[in-house]
Amino acid sequence: MKIPFLNTKKTATLPPPVPQKPGSTNVTSSPTPLKEGIKTADIKINTKEAKVDKAVNTFSAGVTDIKDIIAPASIYVDFNHLKIGNKFYRSFFISGYPRYVGANWLTSLINFEHPVELSMFYYPIEAKGVLEDLRKKITEFQATLSTDRENGKVMDPKVEAALKDALALQDKLVKGVERFFQFSFYITIPADSLEELDNTTKMLQGVLGALLIVAKESTLQMEQAFQSTIPLCVDKMLYVRNMDTSSIATTFPFTSSELTRNEGILYGINKHNGSLIIFDRFSLENANSCIFATSGAGKSYLVKLEILRSLMFGTECIAIDPEREYKSLSEAVGGEFIEFSENSASKINPFDIPTTDNQEGGELAENALGSKILSLHSLFKIIFGNMSNTEEAILDKAIVETYRLKGIGPDPKTHANESPIMEDLYKVLLGMDEPESKNLSARLERYVKGSLAGIFNQRTNIKLDNPFTVFSVRNLEDVLRPIAYYIILDFIWTKVKMKMKKRLLVVDEAWYLMTHEDSAYFMYSIAKRARKYYLGLTTISQDVNDFLNSEHGQVIITNAAIKILLKQSPSSIDRLSEVFHLSEGEKRLLLSVGIGEGLFFAGNNHVAMQVVASKEEHKIVTTNPEEVLKKQAGIKEAELKSEITAGRALNQEDKPKTEPINEEVVNKTLEQVQEPSNSIENTNVKDNVSKTAESKPSQELKKNTIALE
Ligand SMILES: Nc1ncnc2c1ncn2[C@@H]1O[C@H](COP(=O)(O)OP(=O)(O)O)[C@@H](O)[C@H]1O
Ligand SMILES: [Mg+2]
After folding, report:
1. Residue 217: phi, psi to the nearest 5?
2. Are both 309 and 330 inside the same structural domain?
3. Is the CB–ligand 1 distance for residue 598 below 6 Å?
4. Atom 7 of ligand 1: nearest residue by CA position
């Protein structure tokens, strides 16, 4: 056995310890008792050393040391205060504590507006003795209660509560769940005058009263109480209160938590201590994030800020936007805003097969058709709703046939051929013999010939090459949104796999995808594989239950490295608290917080956060109708001004072709329009911003000049 062996070795080689007089600092000055085995020579040396030490002591007594320098000349000890130099001090001891406390309950005392000296002493106590005392106490309480019962009296609720506490504590101590401590707490307040001392005393007692703490002036024991609060670590009062581990843990005064990294972008301000929450999503185990809150809590606002800040660090961003609210952001940074609707020019053909030429580390080309067909199956399940097994088999046959008719087969070389569109599949289904195929083609007709043909029956004509691309689906009906979300996501995911880049993909109102098992699975598979392609998936939803009810939705939540909860509704808070392990206090916080406030989770840690934006950022990302109108009015005014300036410049002299425009006035007007560019530092984005901000009015100017000519 290892430990006994070490022990014997130690005792064998080390000399026996020299006994020490408790409290004495100078060991050799006390006569060393004679022990067997110690030679007379040793004793001689010891007595010699003692003599030297004595001489040193005598000498040092006459020398000024640190204590002499810092000690006051005198201390005036009064009935209920001390006076040291020109300062007055009053000390308190705590004699009563509240029955229930939460974590960090001493904050208001720590943040007391007047300087205070606090000292806390923790004494660990052996459980054995405590258990005996507890048993006695419990018997006492039980006896009191049973006597009351026998005498027909109403039982004393205080005794009942004490008995319950004692039994619970006994149980925990026996099991070793809790340990036992004694705790003492003293406070000293300094002041410049007696009057100030009295005022501060009242204030302090007010604060303590609010905490249900009973504090008493240590009348006639001012000196001892004062000594207990200076940093000497001596408790001269010994006024203790019994506490178990969990209660004593709550007295730890500095529970404000930091959650920040050295690099990354700002998410918000830590509400505990005002520090910044800075994170680089790509440095975590995955770059996914989930944001949940009620409508109007500030989810999109937060994400738009994140996009704006990420763009500065060269991260490409893609967003699916159901509310058309990313438009002003896209304009500000020179992004591409793609409207996905019947009449818009932008189209995506769900039948496109990813071409292999620029596939860097992407999926194997041989499998491209196979995985495309699988993804089409999921799409048709969303379009058709439920399908029978026969229908699925027929659909599969029809899809393969549709590709074959276009000359596309498993051979990657054929994938370069023009891909089919929805209409081709419709025709194949029509031409098939099985009765189910007629049924399927009838259900598909709406998407090929009907009102929806403009969206789903077209060739792809968009690219994903802007640093910021937004897909807006606001003009689609609610029933079509899951389909559109799926097609867009599939398109983006295919592009993401083709070329690896640092990217963020934002899916706003992602609950649309949770309404179908297949789209939920798709979202889940993107979340799972995103890290491999340097992609961070941001999932935003106002409906937590949709996510929690779906098996895949739950995994998306639990596996995201960053999670943000803003204001919640009472109907979802209980389920959320199960998934996020929220405490009662956090639950209450989430129910009552204002816009842009909530909890930020990174891994296992979380802090309360306040989302903040600079003035310039706010102008770009806000969707507050009043502010948006004001901004539009501002731009219109500026345009009007520039028109007038241009007109005046032309009227002043009758030579419009040669006359230059009054540059000074135009520049001023441009400055007014160019609000958003200030906060953006990255040159790329800045260029874009100034380009978009400048180009509009200057184009307008050019137009006017030409028109007037
Ligand atoms: N941190 C914030 N500071 C100031 N205004 C905010 C903040 N967060 C949101 N807002 C404003 O609150 C409104 C709702 O925000 P929004 O992000 O659209 O909510 P959600 O997407 O959660 O429905 C918008 O007008 C937005 O400008
Ligand atoms: Mg929103």
Report:
1. -65, 140
2. yes
3. no
4. 596
Count structural domains, the chain: 4
Whether residue 260 is contained in a domain is answered as no
Specify which residues 603 forms β-bridges with: none
User: Which ligand ends up closest to the CA of 610?
Assistant: 1
Choose the residue to mutate in 301, 321, 572 for probing ligand 1, maximizing ligand atoms within 8 Å of C-beta: 301
**Rounded to an integer, what distance in angstroms lies between the CA atom of residue 341 and that of residue 454?**
8
Q: Alpha-carbon distance 302 to 330, whole Å?
A: 15
Least confident range from 4-8, 109-113, 241-245, 375-379: namely 4-8
CA of residue 623 to ligand 1 center, whole Å: 7
List, for residues 639-686, the tens digit of each pLDDT value.
777 766 666 655 554 444 434 445 554 455 445 544 444 433 443 434
Mean pLDDT, rounded, of the chain = 81
Ligand 1 contacts CB of residue 610 (under 6 A): no
| Pair of tokens at residue 194 | 């007696």
Whether residues 611 and 660 share a domain: the answer is no
Residue of the CA atom closest to atom 2 of ligand 1: 596
Q: Are residues 659 and 591 in the same domain?
A: no
Q: Give a yes or no: residue 257 inside a domain.
A: no
Measured in Å, how far apart are the chain's first and last C-alpha atoms?
104
Q: Which domain holds residue 50?
A: 2-61
User: 295: Cβ below 6 Å to ligand 1?
Assistant: yes
- Determine contact, residues 184/93, Cβ cutoff 8 Å: yes
Verify whether ligand 1 is closer than 6 Å to residue 596 (CB atom): yes
From atom 1 of ligand 1, which residue's Cα is the shortest distance away?
A: 596
For the stretch 532-588, pLDDT in tens is: 999 999 999 998 888 888 889 999 998 899 999 999 999 989 989 888 888 888 899
Query: Which residue reads 């707490």 in tokens?
Result: 185
Examine the pLDDT at 335 and tell me if it is beyond 60: yes
User: What's the CA gap between 428 and 433, in Å, rounded?
Assistant: 10
Reading the block at residue 502, the tokens are 């640092």
Which residue, by CA, sits nearest to atom 12 of ligand 1?
Answer: 298
66 found inside a domain: no
Q: What is the pTM of this model?
A: 0.62
CATH number for the domain including 287? 3.40.50.300
Q: Is the pLDDT at 637 greater than 60, yes or no?
A: yes
Across the range 314-326, mean pLDDT stands at: 93
Residues 102 and 161 in one domain: yes
Cβ(567) – ligand 1 distance below 6 Å: no
Do 37 and 6 share a domain, yes or no? yes
Model confidence band, residue 69 (pLDDT cutoffs 50, 70, 90): confident
- The reply to whether 68 falls in a domain is no
* Of residues 674 and 457, more confidently modeled: 457
* Of 361, 378, 334, the residue nearest 486 (C-alpha): 378
Establish whether residue 322 lines the binding site of ligand 1, counting it when its CB lies within 6 angstroms of any ligand atom: no
